[in-house]
Amino acid sequence: MSxxxxxxxxxxxxxxxxxxxxxxHPVMFFFxxxxxxxxxxxxxxxxxxxxxxAPGFLSCVDCLTYGRTFAAHMNVxxxxxxxxxxxxxxxxxxxxxSRQPSQSSGVILTVGHAWNAVIALGTxxxxxxxxxxxxxxxxxxxxWPCLIVLYAAIAIWSVIQFRVRRGGHVFIxxxxxxxxxxxxxxxxxxxxxxxxxxxxxxxxxATAINAWFRSGLLFLFFTPIAIASAYYLAPKVTGRPVYSxxxxxxxxxxxxxxxxWAGMQKLYGxxxxxxxxxxxxxxxxxxxxxAIAVSVNILxxxxxxxxxxxxxxSLRFSVAGIIGLAATALFAAxxxxxxxxxLTQFSIASYGFDIFALYGFFSMCMFGAIYFIVPRITGRxxxxxxxxxxxxxxxxxxxxxxxxxxxxxxxxxxGQAVENFSEPFASAMGRYKIxxxxxxxxxxxxxxxxxxxxxxxxxxxxxLGRRSNHPTLLKHNAHGQVHxxxxxxxxxxxxxx
Amino acid sequence: xxxxxxxxxxxxxxxxxxxxxxxxxxxxxxxLESVEFSEDKDERTGPYIPSxxxxxxxxxxxxxxxxxxxxxSQVIRPTYAGNDLFREGWAGASxxxxxxxNAFDYPGEMNGAGNAFAHIGESRNGPDLSNVGYRYEGExxxxxxxxxxYNPRLLEGNYKSICQPNPAxxxxxxxxxxxxxxxxxxxxxxxxxxxxxxxxxxTLANYILSLxxxxxxxxxxxxxxxxxxK
Lengths: 497, 230
Description:
heterodimer, A: mainly alpha, 16 helices, B: mainly alpha, Cytochrome Bc1 Complex, Chain D, domain 2, 2 domains, two-stranded antiparallel ribbon
């Protein structure tokens, strides 16, 4: 047995190394350019938040009015950072799970450059006063067909890899990636065709479709990618099987069945059919079911290995992200209750929710994936555990403060003041102003976190990481016995690879 | 679960809500049937035709590009969804004319690229603008609105406003001593300079003045709590 399995393990290791090598450039490109866009988005976010309590701030710069800055901040966050982090994770996971090295890295890399160029043009479009004014679809119209075509050119290779997969078994992560591959273009194409191509529908229903698209982008693209990453990392890093396969199956189909109904509760009280508003609210509340199924499953998988969660950066971020998933679903359900919709629909709670979902849940899972993937594709280990710690704690502190304290609490108080029609409107504005000051402070923490993250990632991209066979662990005296004596990775790997 | 079944499941679970929530309502709202006034209740007959004036369509393009909707809503929600009807000045010029928003209230509203899109709004960091036109009546109102767009805190009694200045919509030029045009802003400037609005500011101001959504609607779609109590 031993010789056969040893030979098998050696072959597996060679295959894995081959896959990692084949994807090094496109995946690193998506991660580093995504991280750079994240930094741009955070700067824009801080400017926008500062302008909400100090409207004169930078008012001499024409292109940085609040409206334009805010739109640029959200769109850069979504399509610059979130989408690219998702692409990088998606193509790497699909290759690894299909056990097929990528044959088309050059194409993906080229298309990735084009994607970045289009995002840059779109951002310039918004800041120069040519934005569309549609939330989450703020770029000028020419951007959307480009993004759809570029997405197809990135995603098609993952579908092909799945078709030619070795082994035949379909992993849980693969269900989620395949579903995301299928949901994202359908949602984006729907929004683009109905709003921009047909273009002459009912104005209010165009807005409703935009609301549905936002929910779709979050729950049917970013969410499945984040869950796929967590379902891969949790068993991989702890060395334990997924807690329950049937719970995973249930969680997946619950998301597939409930997710596409959500979104139109954003137009609560607007002149669209009332049942659509309540269907959206109901579905958003029901999203608690898949979110809790996934969270329980993953937390149960890692629960016996508390120490690993604490020490492995990728697992620590993923677990935080999965707790973030449950909290995101609770947050969404709280906002979708009819009683609270009238209060929070037009308040900073919606912005707080967007940030919590995109950063507190999705980005945390992506950071987890990045901390796992980057050492493998670059063949270098992370340089500083301090940087990772600062990144983790500042992120958590910043996003919880922004979203839960300022967004949720501030949003309810703001909504209450607006609903209290006997009070002058200025009192609502006063409440809003106070909480935006808090948000700005929160953003500074997130910016600090990402300064360390970007810098660290850049060093890794330049292949300045540690040449070590030891994984980076967040504990002192990490160079214990488990991984044997520390050695130079290149000299250790050369005979097998 | 085979891969084939997996994809059938995905397609069905997505296509059904897509049809019911997006495609079919889109098509049915694309051409709304007009609502008739009734002789008994409205004291007039004929179809309800929403009235809007001004350069509203190209004004809404600028409203979109400047992303005014990130802070201002344009919807008066029915009482099941909020108290908008009751807030002073939001739902109409007077207590008798106030009403909730209806599907006919957004003709010609566009996104920045000229596609039909209503600016329902993201938040109410600023007040609702459904009937903002009434807040700037007459010549003085027009001047005030331009000053407000230039820098909201220059308006008397408005120094606490957190609304953004929009210097990009205006230009500062040399004051050559001619009589001031009606559009010249009464704002403090450097010696020998004056601030005049660009076309974009005038179009946006016109759009804002056109936002008056309290015309009489047929009784069948009027839910004003005071209706009939004249």
